[in-house]
Amino acid sequence: GENVEQHPSTLSVQEGDSAVIKCTYSDSASNYFPWYKQELGKRPQLIIDIRSNVGEKKDQRIAVTLNKTAKHFSLHITETQPEDSAVYFCAALPYGGATNKLIFGTGTLLAVQP
Amino acid sequence: DTEVTQTPKHLVMGMTNKKSLKCEQHMGHRAMYWYKQKAKKPPELMFVYSYEKLSINESVPSRFSPECPNSSLLNLHLHALQPEDSALYLCASSQWRGQGNGYTFGSGTRLTVV
């Protein structure tokens, strides 16, 4: 089955700096890669996603890149703000597969220092 | 309506109690999920329902019993739980097998077993 590794587990940046979180997946059948932001005590919220037929996707200060050959995908946050502080989870899903089973990475605690 | 609604938000129950968690969505999603999340850990899949039928049970103990009465509702019946079952229980929904745009999570039920 799918296994998703995520690094780093914690990341501290100064406000205005960029933050990068990296994930690797094992199942080449995975073709949908969402990123979730979870603030303390709240639900995971989808912030950006990418499908395997696209190499990069951007939404304002957030971007995701995908390298299918290396089975890597990364989240890039530019001009970080204190409100970006949260736990970020990457995930992988063999969309169109038999199970629709979303597998999460272990999470990255991002702290943006004012 | 683009939300998944979970009730109750908080639940404290004794080890001999029977209680139920409820989840509702009106997005026309035909897949619904129960996840369990411990502090500082990623969500862990428990059950998957597709078209109101149980398609995945991730070897969850029988003290957790899911039910999907119709395409909009998902319940999780709890009986004889243990203190280690205390966690955030998240419901999610999505289109099935390649359609739509990923999972939408409810705000969760924070369960404490005493």
Q: H/E order of the elements of chain B?
A: EEEEEEEEEEE
Rg calc of chain A: 14 Å
Structural category of chain B: mainly beta
Low-confidence stretches of chain A: none
In terms of quaternary structure, what is this? heterodimer
The helix content of chain A is under 10%
Q: Work out the largest interface and the residue count of each chain.
A: A-B, 27 and 25 residues
Distance between the amino and carboxyl termini of chain A: 41 Å
Fraction of residues in H or I helices of chain B: under 10%
SSE run of chain A: EEEEEEEEEEE
Q: Brief overview, please?
A:
Chain A is mainly beta and 114 residues long. Chain A is built from no helices and 11 strands. Chain A is globular.
Describe the model.
- The complex is a heterodimer of chains A (114) and B (114).
- The termini of chain A are far apart.
- With 114 residues, chain A is an all-beta fold.
- The mean pLDDT of chain A is 92.
- Helices cover 0% and strands 54% of the residues of chain A.
- Chain A contains no helices and eleven strands.
- In chain A, the strands form two sheets. In chain A, strands 2, 4, 5, 9, 10 and 11 form a six-stranded mixed beta sheet that branches.
- The radius of gyration of chain A is 14 Å and the shape is globular.
- Chain B is built from no helices and eleven strands.
- Chain B is globular, with a radius of gyration of 13 Å.
- Chain B has strands spanning 4-7, 10-13, 18-25, 31-37, 44-50, 53-57, 64-70, 73-79, 87-94, 104-105, 109-113.
- In chain B, 0% of the residues lie in helices and 56% in strands.
- In chain B, 35% of the residues are buried.
- In chain B, strands 2, 4, 5, 6, 9, 10 and 11 form a seven-stranded mixed beta sheet that branches. In chain B, strands 1-3-8-7 form a four-stranded antiparallel beta sheet, with no helix packed on it.
- Chain B is mainly β and 114 residues long.
- At the A-B interface, β4, β5 and β10 of A face β5 and β10 of B.
